[in-house]
Structure formats: structure tokens, C-alpha cells
Write a structure and sequence with these properties.
six-stranded mixed sheet, alpha/beta, Rossmann fold, 395 residues, ABC transporter substrate-binding protein, 2 domains, three-stranded parallel sheet
């Protein structure tokens, strides 16, 4: 009889422990609904994230560099100057979508996960038609959770950072970046109303090869900021690539834009070609000194990820409408880098970044002028190579 009682007591204790352990286990996990409606089961505390591509890598870095357990691609020599050295030691997990979609191999993810214990693979950008099925498929094959956050248009950025903060258990930084983006977009909505119908025309030259010129046309994912801040006369985009579509010099001469924005190369080849070629010199933008090369560090400012879109917006707005967006761009950039890239720019570094990106550009760096920093922005809280070493990320 005693033995029976002891057995029953032990059985009850075991049942109780099982129930308790199950409750604790359930409390340690949570369900997150991503932006294609998938229910993703995640740990309450996130500390191991893999980016699904270069856009996700840039955005994840802005949220918390310590979360990385792998990189989509090892940063280039130029990028390494601005980024946490730890990223250079991490394994590559490749890119799920875009021009290098095949580089994310399910078998490799499974093998890496044995060592990395990945909490979630983060995908960011524009939702593809088959994305829900695609993510369910690779998650099922690998046993690793994948989550997607939309960050396609400028207007998506504030909400996406709030959702990223929730997904990755980094609500404070997500709120801070969201507040910054909200304030900046409100400032530009008001400013562009003042500009009204008087938008300046522009083209974004991504490459030049003799008589062949590639432009990022209007209506493309990569032209979101260009279309918003100016009259992009590059024609309607056909290609979804960040390198844009092909035109001839005859086409460019007919466009005759007010401003020409040129893709970065380490030798400034495209910029110098436009300034020195007699054909280009017949354009009003060249005659008026309105040719500028996009800065690059750690990535080209003309890239499609949210940090780059915000930089691009501030830079082009001040460049094209200084009477409306009358802040000192140098101050804005020095404020931006610690917040989104966790890097403090020196004055010399800033001058080097923007040597061909400000009025009266010249090979010698221009002096930095001080001004009052943007007020109240934080209240309440690119994959193709463009030249050598600087990527303009693609989705």
C-alpha cells in the first residue's frame, strides 16, 4: 500500500513538472505575424539573426549590429571602414531573392544552423507574389524561421522600424529610428508642397560606356526617392535592376535635365566623363554646374534600403531646393551616421565623402560649415557593384 501511494505521489509530481515545464517553454516562445501574413514562432529573446540579402543586412545593422550570426555577403574593403569588424569574421548565408537568389542554399543553412542556432532569417523589401509560399518552403526545408517585413516605399519606413523592433525584441531602437524617419518625411512632405509644380528635372546615370548610358527610370523600386524629390525624365523603368535601362547619348541630349546625378566609382570615371566630354557639355546641367556624384560610404547613397533612402532624400532635397530645405547637409549627415550606421564621422571623412556631392565640387575637399542640427527628429524615443568596392544594393 505504501509503495502504491509513493508511486502515485511520484506520478503526480512528474505530471506537475511536465505541465510546469510546458508552460515555461510556451512562455519562452512567441508568435509573430509577418508582412505576408505568416505566423512565425520565435524565441521571446532574439540574439541570433541572419539577413536574407543585402537590404536586410543594411537595415538589420541599423537596428543592432550585435544580432548578426551570419552575413549575406562579406563587406567589401570600402564598407569595412564603417562597419563592426566582427561582421568580417561571420559566415556567408547568401541572398534569397534578387539577382543572386540561388546563393542561399537550404542545405548550407541547415548545416550552419547547427553551429549558429539562428533565431530568425530576416527578409526585407518589396513583397513578391509568391513570397508567402517561398518562405514557407525554405523554412520547412531548413527548420529555420524566416520572417518578412515590407520596406518598399518611403512611407513604409517608419512603420517597418516599429515592426522590426517588435520582431527582433529591439523596440527602443526601432522606435528611435521610426521617430527619425517620421520627422524627416513630415518635413519633406511640407517642403515638397512648397516646391509644388516647380520640381527640377533630373536623371540618375548608373553607368556610361561610350555612346551607351544606363539610367534608373521613373516608377522603379530604385527610383522611389528620385521620383519623389524631382521630375525623373529618364523614361519609365523597364528593368527591375538597380543598374536601370539603356539609352543613347542622343536620348540624353533630348532629355536635357536640370540636374545629373552620377553613380559612384572609385576613380570618378563617369563623373569626369560627363564634365569633360564635349557631347555632355552641351547639356544645361553641365553648363550650370549641376552634375553631382553620389557619395559612397559604407554603401552608395543611391541604394534602395531605408537608411540610404533617407540619406538620399536629405542630400537631393538640399541640393535641388536649398531655399526650401535650407539646413546644412554636413550637419545632417554627421547626425545620421551614428544613429543608422553606429559610426561617428570626422570632418575630414565627411569632406571626403561629399567631395563631388555639393555645389562648387572640386577634387579638393570643401570646408565644412557648421549649422544648427535638425531639431526634434528623435523626440519620443544596394546587390550590384558600382565601381570598385561600393555596392548599390538590389532587391
Amino acid at each position: 500500500m505504501k509503495a502504491t501511494k509513493i508511486f502515485l505521489i511520484l506520478a503526480l509530481v512528474c505530471v506537475g513538472c511536465t505541465v510546469l515545464c510546458g508552460a515555461v517553454s510556451a512562455e519562452e516562445m512567441r508568435t509573430f505575424v509577418d508582412d505576408v501574413g505568416r505566423e512565425v514562432v520565435l524565441p521571446v529573446e532574439i540574439d541570433a539573426v541572419s539577413p536574407s540579402g543585402p537590404l536586410a543586412q543594411t537595415v538589420l545593422y541599423s537596428l543592432d549590429p550585435d544580432l548578426f550570426v551570419s552575413v549575406s555577403a562579406t563587406p567589401s574593403a570600402m564598407e569595412q571602414k564603417y562597419l563592426d569588424p566582427r561582421l568580417m569574421t561571420l559566415p556567408e548565408t547568401g541572398q534569397f531573392y534578387g539577382s543572386k537568389a540561388s546563393t542561399m542554399n537550404p542545405e548550407s543553412i541547415m548545416e550552419l544552423n547547427k553551429q549558429l542556432h539562428i533565431d530568425v532569417v530576416l527578409d526585407i523589401g518589396e513583397a513578391k507574389g509568391t513570397m508567402k509560399e517561398d518562405l514557407n518552403d525554405i523554412s520547412g526545408k531548413t527548420g529555420v524561421s524566416f520572417a518578412f517585413i515590407t520596406q518598399n516605399k518611403l512611407s513604409d519606413i517608419p512603420g517597418s522600424y516599429l515592426k522590426l523592433g517588435e520582431l527582433l525584441d529591439r523596440k527602443e531602437q526601432g522606435g528611435r529610428l521610426s521617430a527619425y524617419a517620421s520627422s524627416l518625411l513630415a518635413e519633406f512632405d511640407a517642403g515638397m508642397k512648397t516646391v509644388g509644380e516647380n520640381k527640377k528635372s533630373l536623371i540618375y546615370v548608373s553607368s556610361i560606356d561610350g555612346n551607351a548610358v544606363s539610367l534608373v527610370g521613373n516608377g522603379s523600386y530604385h527610383a522611389n526617392v528620385i521620383d519623389y524629390v524631382g521630375n525623373n525624365v529618364g523614361g519609365h523603368a523597364v528593368s527591375s535592376s538597380g543598374t536601370g535601362d539603356g539609352y543613347t547619348m542622343e536620348d540624353i541630349l533630348q532629355m536635357n535635365p536640370d540636374f545629373i546625378i552620377v553613380s559612384f566609382t572609385t576613380d570618378h570615371a563617369y563623373y569626369n566623363k560627363i564634365l569633360n566630354d564635349p557631347l555632355w557639355q552641351s547639356l544645361s546641367a553641365v553648363r550650370n554646374g549641376n552634375v553631382y556624384e553620389a557619395p559612397c560610404g559604407p554603401y552608395s547613397w543611391m541604394g534602395p534600403s531605408s537608411p540610404l533612402k533617407l540619406l538620399m532624400l536629405m542630400w537631393l532635397g538640399n541640393l535641388m531646393y536649398p531655399e526650401v530645405f535650407s539646413y546644412d547637409i554636413h550637419d545632417r549627415v554627421k547626425e545620421f551616421y551614428p544613429l543608422f550606421f553606429h559610426y561617428d564621422l570626422t570632418d575630414a571623412e565627411l569632406d571626403e565623402l561629399m567631395v563631388y556631392a555639393v555645389p562648387n565640387s572640386s577634387p579638393a575637399p570643401a570646408a565644412t560649415q557648421a549649422s544648427v542640427p535638425i531639431a526634434g527628429i528623435c523626440a519620443g524615443a544596394a546587390v550590384a557593384l558600382t565601381g570598385v568596392g561600393c555596392r548599390r544594393f538590389q532587391s
